[in-house]
Amino acid sequence: MPIVDVGAADWDRVVGQSEKPVAVEFWAPWCPWCRKLMPDFDALSTEYEGRLTMLKLNTQDHPDIAERYGVMGLPTIKMFCQGRPIGEVIGYMPKPRLKTELDRLMQNHRECLQSSSPMPT
Predict the structure, then answer these.
(1) CATH number at residue 74
(2) Does 120 map to a domain?
(3) Which residues contact 64 (CB under 8 A, 6 or more apart)?
(4) Do the domain assignments include residue 43?
């Protein structure tokens, strides 16, 4: 399943109102490590289909969102639970390590759901 690009116009709907955990890759076209990570992130989206929504956000086009969530380096992958950031991984990593980190973040999502209620819209 191809990963969807998200932006300011659909951020609240796609990230804030998702029933599933959401992993957002913050990237930029000029970032070589982002380009290196993208194929693995894309490939994992098929493996996590139905359990995890995986999105990309171009920080060059949407610097306000990157700033809102404290993105200081690229690539950064942030995991969201009911619109709230619950973890992140920063920098390039090989696909097996990326999968391990996404699994860890998904565990954080389960804990988030057990201990919180949705953010008001």
Answers:
(1) 3.40.30.10
(2) no
(3) 8
(4) yes
* Residue 19, in any domain of the structure: yes
**% of the chain exceeding 70 in pLDDT:** 93
Count Cβ neighbours within 10 Å for each residue of 14-36 and write b for 16 or more, e otherwise.
bbbebeebbbbbbbbeebeebee
Catalytic residue among 34, 57, 89, 93: 34
pLDDT attached to residue 115: 64
- The pLDDT assigned to 3 comes to 87
Domain count, the chain: 1
- Could you confirm whether 34 is annotated as catalytic? yes
Active-site pick, 31, 44, 81, 105: 31
